[in-house]
Amino acid sequence: MNAMFAIAAGIAVLATVMMITRPSAVHALLYLTVSLLAVAMVFFVLGAPFAAALEVIIYAGAIMVLFVFVVMMLNIGGEAEALENDWLKPAAWIGPSALALLLALELGTLAASGSLARPAAAVIGPQAVGIALTGPYMLAVEIASFLLLAAVVAAFHLGRAVMRGV
Amino acid sequence: MTAIPLDQGLGLAAALFALGLAGVLVRRNLLFMLMSLEVMLNAAGVAFVVAGARWAAADGQIMFILVLTFAASEVSVGLALILLMHRRNSTLDADASYHLRG
Fold it and tell me: In terms of domains, do A17 and A58 share one?
């Protein structure tokens, strides 16, 4: 299990290094997604499956979609099509794909060895997290909902300014 | 399943945080700076989950969920600001708008 942690951690660090050195935003986004998936794998190995699922759903899913939408909106123009052609070359996606394949192999190895079906004693599942979240941490949940509401209002206000063309 | 040593997990968190900080300091493109901020927040979440796993408590994952909430709201506001700035300056260079006077 220690080797699994080392592999996932290595992939996370490598993908992050590649992310901050890419000149193109889309390539960096691909590497960032792989890095977040690797961190989700680290969480799973550490016995935190709920955090791993949230990492995949919210970080690698929702937040990355937001980034992709903004990159799409910023790239409206004549040269965008040539850029798209450039991005479809293998050199653009072979690196992130290889790292993601390594992660998938690691997950497959874990599943084949039965570690996915028989969690260790140290696993803290969604139930324990949910009980603590609605018990002693109720106030923190309320504060988080305030924060999300404030973010919605701010994003709406700023988005209206963008639409007005200020 | 043997437990992961605490120092290895915290080492990973420190490495990710340092990489994110380096990204914020080195890159001048606002989109890359926001992505590096995400990496730094994610590293903080890794530290929380590692500590929670060390003491077999759910608190680490709860703090991770709060960090996640913060990251989601931060990125939505940040991306809206980036769109606005691109509309005004037609560049994503952070040095182009350091006056902050509209």
Answer: yes
